[in-house]
Amino acid sequence: MPITTLRSPRLFLLRLTVTDEQAGQSRSWAMPAAPFGSAPWQLPTLAAYLRRLHRSEAPPVLDEFAAYLADRAQGPVPVPQTPYEYDPLHDPRIVCWIDAHAEPAQQGERWPHCSVVVMEQESGLCRWSRMTRLRTAHHVIAYTHAEAAAEAQRLADRMRRRPHEGTAAALEMAEQARDWAQPAHRQVKAEQTLVQAGRVRRALREGVRTVAVSAPGNTPQGT
Fold it and tell me: What span, in angstroms and rounded, lies between the C-alpha atoms of 61 and 16?
């Protein structure tokens, strides 16, 4: 009688670390990697949470994020719900890992401070891995839009080659994620443009003051 080898399921992992003035705390959640445990499907969850914090100007809180995941579990795209309490660096089951770190917005800012590392890997003969670092909430949302658009394009190509109702349903959801991320990306891009313009204006003003003070004949007056 042949011996059946049981293979551990591949996993997707989401970890959030929240740091405030006192300390930092982390919590992790896992789910099966197939079919929705990948960056294009799970990054919108994190990006939407960052936008919620931006609108409310509230600090990130782990318990609130856990409740937020529970709310999104009712949607068409599954999100990780199972608490994960192991060391992901030594777990060969994990093929995609989104490791996010969030801090409250600083005075005068509305976006929380955020950095994210997206790690993807595959095992087997043609093993590969990829690591993407995103250093701000703006970068997270821009990358989310790029990944969602790429996933929608990939599924559209598959539908043209081999139409299937399952692929059609996944394509519809991917297009919805892309269409949600597109205006979010436009918003943060416009905000970045305004911020850069403000920096240029300040630099120009500082330059004019420096020239005025150092110009011949402009002797600073004492008090």
Answer: 10
φ/ψ of 57, rounded to 5, equals 55, 30
* CB contact at 8 A, 96 and 90: no
Q: Which residue has the tokens 């030594």?
A: 90
Residue 27 bridge partners (DSSP) = 16
**Strands in the chain per DSSP E:** 11-19, 24-32, 82-83, 94-103, 113-122, 128-134
Cβ-based neighbours of 80, under 8 Å, separated by 6 or more:
12, 13, 14, 29, 30, 31, 37, 42, 69
Cis peptide before 2 (omega within 30 of 0): no
Closest C-alpha among 44, 143, 26, 137 to residue 88:
26
pTM of the predicted protein model: 0.81
pLDDT category, 211, cuts 50, 70, 90? low
